[in-house]
Amino acid sequence: MDQDLVVRVQHGDRRAFEALATADYPRLFRVAHGVLSDRSLAEEATQQALLDIWRDIRRLRDPAKYEGWSYRLLVRVCYAEAKRQPTWTPSEDLSPADEPSAADACGVVADRDQLERGFRHLSMDHRVVLVLHYLMDMTPEEVAQALGISRWTVYSRLEAATKAMRAALEADARAVAPSTNRQEALR
Asked: 3-class SS at 95?
């Protein structure tokens, strides 16, 4: 991130903020969509985070830490959005990059559906660390800095989230197997 641009925004330069927001929107949206799994909620969260950035950027002491600071603001907004949305809904929108090829369409769709069902069982804390670490390719140290938590907390949440995902996926697989057997018995 261009630190001079951040400094200009801190001094109230609206054009600099437009440039910053334009550059940041895809990164922030990707995280929000990964955490919230809903395009419209992610768009709302990203817009609110950008408003919070504009309002609070003067409090940022070190422009070099802007990226982590902006993630922290976005994650707070995602928590608020998730609280307002009592039920989790799976994402139904696929980007062209996510669309499977015809050869493996059924398997990919089934895998994606299974992962979304497993993701639904995770706490927001676990979703956030998984998205930042695996989707955004951040190191645990970078995740810790972005969230304002210790790296040991990040490691702990990653381990707990992985175990919870594995348990949810295994439970889902067990639940699917008996219904398949019942269908075969009815034939």
From this structure: coil
